[in-house]
Amino acid sequence: MSPLSVFLNYGFYKLREGKGSHQIWTNDNKTVTVPYNLKSRHTANAILKQANINKKI
């Protein structure tokens, strides 16, 4: 399961394109920056933690 599908399940939506190779996602309460090519599960878990989602990849 990818972090983006987890974001969609938790009500997040893509707000805009970020700088370089990143996207900005939000759920109106929290905004997080996600890289396009997310290769590390550790980075994915850190992004989910930053978004207050208690789920691990």
From TrEMBL:
InterPro entries: HicA_mRNA_interferase, HicA_sf. One of its GO terms (molecular function) is mRNA binding. The keyword Cytoplasm does not apply. Keywords: Endonuclease, Hydrolase, Nuclease, RNA-binding, Stress response, Toxin-antitoxin system. Gene3D superfamilies: Hypothetical protein. It comes from the Bacteria. Pfam families: HicA_toxin. Belongs to the HicA mRNA interferase family. This is YcfA family protein. It comes from Taylorella asinigenitalis (strain MCE3). The lineage of its organism: Bacteria, Pseudomonadati, Pseudomonadota, Betaproteobacteria, Burkholderiales.
